[in-house]
Every structure is written in structure tokens, then in C-alpha cells.
Amino acid sequence: MGRVGVLYGGSSAEREVSLMSGAGVHSALREAGVDAHLFDTGKEGIAALAGAGFDRVFIALHGRWGEDGCIQGALELLGIPYTGSGVAACALAMDKVMTKRVWLQHKLPTPRFAVLRAGESLEAVPGEVGLPLIVKPAHEGSTLGLTKVCTPASLAGAYELAARYDTAVLAEEFIAGRELTVAVLGSDETARVLPVIEILAPDGNYDFQNKYYSDDTRYVCPAQLSESVTRQVQALAVAAYRAVGCAGWGRVDVMLDREHRPYLLEVNTAPGMTGHSLVPMAAAAAGMSYSELCVEILASARCKLQPHSVPMT
């Protein structure tokens, strides 16, 4: 693999999670004999990255400036192969509103939604989306700034919380049912799914604390679904992944309503790799160790933009 950089930390609201993910990936790669080195993009800039001599990098960054196409664009310019999706897919997946619009264009099911912006009235939102609904920042992950709204009176407070993280806020129909997630490895026609995971959080609240630190959240992997529903959910996840243009690896979050109809929530192009994270859990259920998973993802690293010659004048 050559000299490998594990990009982690960063400067997004998800820095804390990224530090844990990067440390885990770095340790696993070193254990597998890879010459891996940690590189905190929140402390060192592009010049330092250019001079680090990395032959390829594993992106363990989450959130803005790491998962949104920014670092991917810099790596393309530097000619350093990297894990995960390219610039366009990362930018699209990071924008939950645009992702939903792409899925709808592909006739893939996703909950009803409305975009909330500063200064605009919220009065019509419950009628458009229904109650209860979910309010969350349009460009954040890890459930940061997310609120379940059950009454019109609590919508303003939920908006204010989400707006601390983003100027664009998403109000989304709440789908009552089972919370599922599907990890995908590979690209294009070679993309394959890992076993479906069902998330059982305390009181149905899969927030930041229950996602990364609580031992009370339970996970069922493989999820106890019928064979036909499992195939339907997995096929939908792959279709969603391909529609956005994802590559290398990712994770698609799905809600299954009480009539066993799946709805797409979002796609993550650089999912968590912590001790509580879901992609390693799904890989383990498929017989793949954490270290093997990291090596497979790293082996898929490449630049996505093909170089071309510029005529000299």
C-alpha cells in the first residue's frame, strides 16, 4: 500500500467522532502491516498534506471539510488516491435536501420534507410534512441538532437548535417503524451490501449520546426481517448509493414503516469507524474483521478524476 495517511480530526462539529474513527483505523492498519500515519486536518493544512509523502490516504473524517467533497478535491489536485466517494458524490450526499431530490428523480422512496430558512414562516410546515416530524440541519451528521417535533408549538425551538449548525434546516416526515442501516462496499456494478442492522435505541431516541457512548442502545445484525423484506431493503440501499454516485464504501440509513415499506433517510460517504459504529458491526456479521474491513476499503483508494493533457499555446 506504500506510505498511508489516515486523515482524521478535522474542524467540523463531528471532530470528536472522527478522532475516534481515525485512531481505530490507524491501529487496525498498523496491525495489518500497513505503513499508516495519522494526519489531523484540523491542525495541519494542505501544504503539510502535500509534503507528507503519502502514496494513498484513508479518509476517516466526518462532516464538513472532510465528507463534503472539500478534502476530496484537494486530494484530486495533489494526485493522491483516497478512499470513498469522489468530489461530486460527497458534496451531494452531504446535502440531505439535494440527496432527497435526486432519489425522488430516480423514483426512490424518501419521507416528505420541507426546507426551513431564517425569516420564513413555519406555520404551514406541519400541514405540508405532517406531525410528528423530524427537524435537523441539512449539512450535518451524527444526529447533531436533530429534534423530534410532536406539536406545532415546539417547531420554532427545534428550528433554532438545528440553525446553530446550518443555515439550511430540513423538516422531514417522521416514519414510525423500525430503524435500519445498510453498509455498502464497492462501486458501480460491483457494489455489494453487508447484512442489514436494526437499531434499537432507548425510547427510540438514537441521538449523539446513544449513538457513540451509550451501552443501552441495542443492535440486531442481521436484522430479523423476512427474506423478501431483507432483499427489498438491500436493493433499495444499493440503488440509493448508485443514484448519488457513491464509490468505495458507504452506509445508507432506512426507516421501515409498520406496513414494511422502506424509506430512505440519508447516505453516509465516510461512516463512523468507532467501537460503536455500524459498518464494522455489519462486516463482522459477514465474517470480516475490523482490520480486514479497513484494508479492503484502503485497497479501493483511487483518484476519481482522470488526468488530461492541456494543449500548450
UniProtKB/TrEMBL annotation:
The keyword Lipoprotein does not apply. Residues 100-299 form the ATP-grasp domain. GO terms for cellular component: cytosol. GO terms for molecular function: ATP binding; D-alanine-D-alanine ligase activity; metal ion binding. Its main location: cytoplasm. Mg(2+) 2 binds at residues 266, 268. Pathway: Cell wall biogenesis; peptidoglycan biosynthesis. InterPro entries: ATP-grasp, ATP_grasp_subdomain_1, D-Ala_lig_Van_CS, D_ala_D_ala, Dala_Dala_lig_C, Dala_Dala_lig_N, PreATP-grasp_dom_sf. Binds 2 magnesium or manganese ions per subunit. The active site is at 14, 142, 277. Transmembrane segments: none annotated. Keywords: ATP-binding, Cell shape, Cell wall biogenesis/degradation, Cytoplasm, Ligase, Magnesium, Manganese, Metal-binding, Nucleotide-binding, Peptidoglycan synthesis. One of its GO terms (biological process) is regulation of cell shape. Its EC number is 6.3.2.4. It is an enzyme of class 6 (ligase). Gene3D superfamilies: 3.40.50.20, ATP-grasp fold, A domain, ATP-grasp fold, B domain. It is found in: Cytoplasm. It comes from the Bacteria. Its cofactor is Mn(2+); Mg(2+). The keyword Coiled coil does not apply. It holds the Pfam family Dala_Dala_lig_N. Mg(2+) 1 binds at residues 253, 266. It catalyses: 2 D-alanine + ATP = D-alanyl-D-alanine + ADP + phosphate + H(+). Cell wall formation. Belongs to the D-alanine--D-alanine ligase family. This is D-alanine--D-alanine ligase. It comes from Verticiella sediminum.
